[in-house]
Each structure stands twice: as structure tokens, then as C-alpha cells.
Design brief:
This protein has 259 residues and is an alpha/beta fold. The chain is built from 5 helices and 18 strands. Helix content is 19%, strand content 25%.
Amino acid sequence: MAETSRASILLIYTGGTIGMKTNPETGALSPFDFNDMYEEFPYLRMLNVDISVLHFKPIDSSNVTPALWIELARLIRDSYASFDGFVVLHGTDTMAYSASALSFMIENLGKPVVFTGSQIPIGVLRTDGRENLITAIEIAAAKEGGRAVVPEVCIYFQNKLFRANRTTKHSAELLNAFRSDNYPALADVGVNIHYNEPFIRRAEEDSAPLRIATALETGIEIVKIFPGMRPETLGAMLRIPGVRGVVLETYGAGNAPTA
């Protein structure tokens, strides 16, 4: 059972569908100001949580670059002592990339960093963003024995909490847009939040200071092998100046055409 002492959460809005609301005058979607979220969603006051909001300049998630990951990592590091947990609102198309990157960039993490978003804008009546937002905040604030219940970078979406670096987006239409094929869910959400304790990672040393890695290498390629791929195509990709590493997506257990 999670503790009931009041927690402090930093809500970081980077952009994405979850932050869009219909303009009543034009009918167009425009960014929602999460500083007004208590007026829009008064039931958030029922949570035993103090929420601070930080807005990035909204960015379409298809335009996300490693520069955003560095900015997020630095922000979390600089705010780490002031908050019990962090919720990052992010567009769904590259959410798994951003969350996975942060899971490796932030070392000795002892507090939750929960990414979430939505398939339907939060200003639309049938939005999935409302539940995703509320539950992500609840998970980020959850403590037991004075320690965070989920002290790692994760993604919450449609009743499931996944480890960030085991998660992929598999649907642009379904509300359960994410899945973790090779690692169990960290939590299942129904009437209650059931945490799968054996699968949640704990920091090795509680006293170790948080630190971040910001030297990211962008000279990496992902090459998908497909039937009929010409050797010249692969050769051209490998000869691009500045390439430092290549990930080959091959068949089966590593097979590729002998040609």
C-alpha cells in the first residue's frame, strides 16, 4: 500500500497530442496551458499531491532530437532535490525513444520519471489523456517506507506501466498504443494499481548522487535487411562520413543474404 504523505511532482510538458485543446472561436486545436489544469480538471485536487508545471516550447514529437533529451536530463538533475517524482508529457510517436534515452542518461535514479501522453487531445470529451495524466501523477507520487515505489524511467499508457527501454509504440489508432514484448509490465492499473515488485529496478546505492551523461553519439545507423537489398545500397550507407556504429536488423537469429 502506497503512503499517503503529501508528495511534490514536477510536470514537464514538451508537446504532443495530450496538450492540445479545441479553440472555441476557431475550432482549431491549440496548445493547452497546464498551469490551468486545476480549473480544467478540478478532481486533480483530490490527489494528495503538490504539482508544479514547467512548459517547454511545444514540439511535434517527430521533430525530437537528442538535444531535447539532454535538456530534460539536465532539468531533472537540477530539480531532483525539490521533487519526489517527475511526469513528462510527450508526443507518442517518439516517446519510447526519449524515455529510453533518459533511462540510460540518468544514473543512480531513486525517484520516478513517468512519461505519458495520449492518442486523443486532452480537450476532446473522449480523451484518453485525462486518465493517463492522473494515473501517471499518482504513480510518480507513490511511496512505500519512505522510498519511491517505481524509482526508474517508465512509460504509463492505457492501464499499463512499462519500463522505458523495453517499450515500443505499436499502434497509431488503438488507445493501448504501447507494449513491452520482452519484459513484464511494472504495474497493471484497474480498480487499484498493482505494482509488479519483482520486476521494478532499485538503485544499487541509495546514497549515490544522481548524475547524468550528456555526451551522446549521433553517428549511428540502423539498417534493416530486406529481400532484394542491393549490396551497393548497404555499401553506400556504410560509407557515409561520420558513421561510428551500425545496428543491423537481420532475419531470424542473425541471418542475412550471402550476397
